[in-house]
């Protein structure tokens, strides 16, 4: 076959193409132009050949230069000023640049790349579908993709997917990963609208094995994640309620009427029942282990809120940096990731019920301020959020300190103290209600016998010794001691020999008291009076004396009046 025939055939092929074609040499001059290109540009072929393309089409000068000098492809360049808007693709060659001209209408038809029947099938899918070319240009997306991404197809078709990343519509592009690797990819994507989708990108290769299309399937898993989160939270709440119910069967009993023998606790029990029917805030003050939590539960379960949650927060058990998030919640979710669900705080968890904030004196002042604001309007704004939520709760606080003294020392907000201190209750230490020790011992014995499947009893002498012990750890120490004895004592009867040395050391003193025929309250009062007098002789300052005795200064002042002990001048 001769060369002239080949050139003629090639010329005929170029002229028959359904689009405009122009070849530029390495200098950027037009070396060939087919008739379709000339017609699209409203010029004659001879007028174009030999012209500098950059001068003919100034808006394309930069792209043409990049194609010639850097071998950079350019697709979808728009040209206006012609009879109809044109789209131009610039494709670098070894000896120049190939320019392809198409009507924009023609471009849209080619871009779709699928038949109408396929479009109908894709649009009927619940999943989103994207079709992109090998350069990452969007050719098609179905209606589900529009809905999932809150976009319109006409705004996206023709754009590069990398532009969608730059515009923060998506956090990363699965299409670009497929182009980079040439392999199927699957990962979760976070959209600008807050949704989370599971995307799978698959490459499509032509007959020559070159990448021609990328088909992306995306499924909105936001609702699935939300349902999973809500289900997990429900499980947590159910487990919390179950645990609370189990513990209540034991805890609430320590302040039941049947276990109370002392006059002071009888008065406080009646006060608690009365306060339970009000929504006023309650301040429970007492030493460690006096049972503030159990007393708060007594109030809750005697109140109209008893069917709603009782939520307990120990301020000392949470790092200061997390206290605000735990109390008020976090709109951003844990880790602040796009997919995180908002974190509900203790205030919202207790909605409808009772929130106990124990050791409230440990809260920093700025959080005290937020609690004060809540008490004013009963509304909570989560950290990172703008919308406040109405919350209906009853607040009970626990403290080991005298809050009024802390107010004077500028360590506690006065306005918060005034709002909280509606029903102040001072819970006495166990040593101030010795009459309650025997029934409590029997209660704990029954509890731990049931747990360990034993039938331990306690000898009367051991009971006497326990009643004379001061129990600086109060009911908590008593409960731990009885559990220890039930677990460790091999015999069925717990005697005085089984008791710790710190308790047995008072045996001789107890024997002397018994010989005089004193009743238990009288013996305890005698011991208290002697210990207080001894402490004051060594430490004339009430604050130092109360510290040595292991009691609050207010408790010491009350006992000084009770025993009519005069301080030395």
Automatic annotation (TrEMBL):
Keywords: ATP-binding, Coiled coil, Nucleotide-binding, Transcription, Transcription regulation
UniProt cross-references to InterPro entries, sorted A to Z: AAA_lid_NorR, Homeodomain-like_sf, HTH_Fis, P-loop_NTPase, PAS, PAS-assoc_C, PAS-like_dom_sf, PAS_4
Domain PAS: residue ranges: 6-51, 114-170
GO biological process: regulation of DNA-templated transcription
UniProt domain Sigma-54 factor interaction: residue ranges: 258-487
Gene3D superfamilies found in the cross-reference section: 1.10.8.60, Homeodomain-like, P-loop containing nucleotide triphosphate hydrolases, PAS domain
Superkingdom to which the source organism belongs: Bacteria
Signal peptide segment: none
Molecular function per GO: ATP binding; sequence-specific DNA binding
Coiled coil stretches, renumbered: 224-251
Residue ranges of domain PAC in the record: 172-233
NCBIfam families noted in UniProt: sensory_box
Name the record gives this protein: Fis family transcriptional regulator
